[in-house]
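Researcher: Next entry in the queue.
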Amino acid sequence: MKGRLIPFYLLAVCCLVAAPAVTAQESVPDVLATGISTAMDLAYVSKYIWRGISLNPDPAYQPSLTVSHPTGLSFNFWASADTTDVSGNSGEFTEIDYTLSYDWTAKSGHAMNAGIVSYTFPNTSASNTTEVFGSMCFGGNLSPTLAINYDFDEADGFYASFGTSYECPMPWKQKAPAMGFAARVGYGSSGHNGFNYGAETSALTDFLIGVSLPIQIGEKVSMVPSVTYTRVIDGELRDALSAAGSDSTNFFAGLTVSSSF
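Model: Structure for this entry, 261 residues:
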């Protein structure tokens, strides 16, 4: 079954459901427009790595646009474009994802997030697919986060990850940016791993560690250079990737410029 794009009318319906009650003096468009914010990112990565899998061993541009409502509802458009002809797609988009999500705070105080993401792969032979997801951040200095993605479309399997992050202020000068450290480990079911890694076994999938240094440029623009190391953990998954000509251990750099309005 082919993956499906999230229809844009679904976003409108969810906005109507999540928006505050409309008073007699307000129209629905007025309520939906109140407090809407937009964020744009443009990232350049030396490799495109996803869950430890090398989807592009050469550099890629990855633009992103997120529209958010104060209710916690947001819609994100994300894409990846090849910069070389390593796959015969230089200058073309090879992935476009559409994500509809909702953020809220649980009674326990934990930050929660849930939604649906549609993965599409133009200019390639890869199958489109769709996942639903949910995550919980436990807070504290290390911000441990547990997330689960379930692919109900092509893979019929789940991917669970546990991650943590920490910000360390730099002692260079007053108001110096804080360096960010992040780590994550993933686990996939046999369905997920068979579809994505090429080996139908339930196993620990990938390990990631990364360092970033956010730099604020003005009030609404920031720049974030980063370096990341990632490795596929399970030997059977590594063998399957190797047989397909894909590296299972990768080190890559990235630079993301972000703006909000």
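Model: The longest strand covers residues 93-105.
Researcher: Noted, moving on.
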